[in-house]
TrEMBL record:
InterPro entries on file: BPS-dom (IPR015042), GRB/APBB1IP (IPR039664), Grb14_SH2 (IPR035034), PH-like_dom_sf (IPR011993), PH_APBB1IP (IPR039665), PH_domain (IPR001849), RA_dom (IPR000159), SH2 (IPR000980)
Protein task: Adapter protein which modulates coupling of cell surface receptor kinases with specific signaling pathways. Binds to, and suppresses signals from, the activated insulin receptor (INSR). Potent inhibitor of insulin-stimulated MAPK3 phosphorylation. Plays a critical role regulating PDPK1 membrane translocation in response to insulin stimulation and serves as an adapter protein to recruit PDPK1 to activated insulin receptor, thus promoting PKB/AKT1 phosphorylation and transduction of the insulin signal.
Recorded GO CC terms: endosome membrane; plasma membrane
Keyword Acetylation: yes
Annotated PH domain residues: 171-279
Subcellular location: Cytoplasm; Endosome membrane
Stretch forming the signal peptide: none
Organism name: Daphoenositta chrysoptera (varied sittella)
Protein name: Growth factor receptor-bound protein 14
UniProt family annotation: Belongs to the GRB7/10/14 family.
């Protein structure tokens, strides 16, 4: 009866159509299809993601989810600031290898290539070097390792370098010496390698580039590139700057094609060039995606997005009998600084046996900071910074293993990790910390870090990005 009633309503010509423009619009069906949920439900699977402190979180996700979408999901669930550096890592525990999964890669497809005998985990962490090439391409390729086509001008601009690497017709040639592990043996051999569009080759006769002297080593469409995270401990490589290629469908670590460079600059050059060769324009699209649809913003001047609640916050002064809103930005900044110092003073007060507050040295307030890593070794600090990307200014602070009651600032600069001793000084019964033999003194480590985030001082660069052990 209800169906007949509906049919009679539709057939009744006396009721006009209130939206006649939708009937004649060719986009009506497209519009409704985009607004309504799909009829077919996507299959879901559970993945486990680890953080730096080895805590894990299980997520139920669609089977076609990308690495970027997993990162966005974890950012939302944990209320992190999205500065476009969050990355999903694939880490092979037994072999000490790891790689950053590209933002466009399907996570289930990555997991389908895992083998039973190798313990493989997904890690969620920041990688500040993920798209650094697009910001500063000239620093990634030393002159002695790159050759441009003969028709190219000798001096290439910033954009010219980018266009050449992303072009489908031309590609620079990367060349230089690498140590290669011989298949089925423990020995390594130093060979002259060349990277061309068709793959990676080595010369059987010195540095000859003649076709008859070039032997094919590896192609990249059916393999993934990994970095050695444990130096030469597991692989027995001649240097600590190893990387390798692992076939997607294989029997595991026995099919690895292992290489190592003489220094970090050389390894970074090879790995960046191979990554660009394999993914090309897709990599640039990944880099640009967060900035699309945001008018007036370029990738170089973008700032991390904050939530609506953060943007609606205002500065308040509660020092008088009545609270008031601080509208002057300079006054708001000075009040914030005073509050920070007052917090430090409050945190350093202890009660004596009579209940009266007594001042204590600022010994432990740094332990709550994300950049402080307590008792980790020099090797562990270097591994953490390497995983976060060797960009100038990546840092952490840790306890010194060799000198008790002192600290060490570990800092990345120029593709190298440098370590600076933070020495405690006592003057008139007060404890200070210094990096420059007492010329610049700080009452606690937080003040020290904040100062060098704004001033280079005796350091090779300012402190920009800290390594944090996040918990999921």
């Amino acid at each position: 009866r209800r169906k007949k009633k509906g049919d009679s309503i539709l057939e009744n010509p006396s009721i006009p159509n209130p939206f006649p423009e939708l009937c004649c619009s060719p986009f009506a069906s497209v519009l409704s299809a985009s607004l309504l949920p799909k009829a077919t439900s996507r299959k879901k699977q559970v993945i486990k993601v680890y953080s730096e402190d080895d805590t894990s979180r299980a997520l139920e996700v669609p089977s076609d989810i990308t690495a970027r979408d997993v990162c966005q999901l974890l950012i939302l669930k944990n209320h992190y600031v999205d500065d476009h550096s969050w990355t999903l890592f694939e880490q092979l525990t037994h072999t000490g290898l790891g790689r950053a999964i590209e933002d466009h890669e399907l996570v289930m497809e990555v997991q389908s290539n895992w083998v039973m005998e190798e313990e493989t985990k997904l890690y969620f962490r920041k990688n500040y070097a993920k798209y650094e090439f697009f910001k500063n391409p000239l620093s990634f390729f030393p002159d002695h390792m790159i050759s441009f086509p003969s028709e190219t001008n000798a001096a290439l601009s910033h954009s010219g370098i980018l266009q050449m690497f992303l072009s489908s017709s031309t590609y620079p040639e990367i060349h230089g010496y690498l140590h290669a592990k011989e298949q089925g043996k423990k020995s390594w051999k130093k060979l002259y390698f060349l990277l061309r569009r068709s793959g990676l080759y080595f010369s059987t006769k010195g540095t000859s580039k003649e076709p008859r002297h070039l032997q094919f080593f590896c192609e990249f469409s059916n393999s993934d590139m990994y970095m050695s995270l444990t130096g030469k401990k597991i692989s027995g490589a001649p240097t600590n700057y190893g990387f390798c290629f692992k076939p997607n469908k294989s029997g595991g670590s026995r099919d690895l094609k292992q290489l190592c460079a003489d220094d970090e600059q050389s390894r970074t050059c090879w790995m960046t060039a191979i990554r660009l060769l394999k993914y090309g324009m897709q990599l640039y699209q990944n880099y640009m995606q967060p900035y699309q649809g945001r008018s007036g913003c370029s990738p170089l001047n973008i700032t991390p997005m904050r939530s609506i609640s953060e943007n609606s916050l205002v500065a308040m002064d509660f020092s008088g009998h009545r609270s008031r809103i601080i509208e002057n930005p300079t006054e708001a900044l000075s009040v914030a600084v005073e509050e920070g110092l007052a917090w430090r003073r409050r945190g350093c007060l202890r009660l004596n046996s009579h209940g009266s507050p007594i001042a204590m040295p600022n010994m432990a307030i740094h332990r709550s900071q994300s950049w402080f890593h307590h008792k980790i070794s020099r090797e562990e600090a270097q591994r953490l910074i390497l995983q976060h990307g060797l960009v100038d200014g990546v840092f952490l602070v840790r306890d010194s293993q060799s000198n008790p009651k002192t600290f060490v600032l570990s800092l990345s600069h120029g593709l190298k990790i440098k370590h600076f001793q933070i020495v405690p000084l006592e003057d008139d019964g007060k404890l200070f910390y210094t990096l420059d033999d007492g010329h610049t003194r700080f009452t606690d480590l937080i003040q020290l870090v904040e100062f060098y985030q704004l001033n280079k001082g005796v350091l090779p660069c300012k402190l920009k990005h800290y390594c944090a052990r996040i918990a999921l």
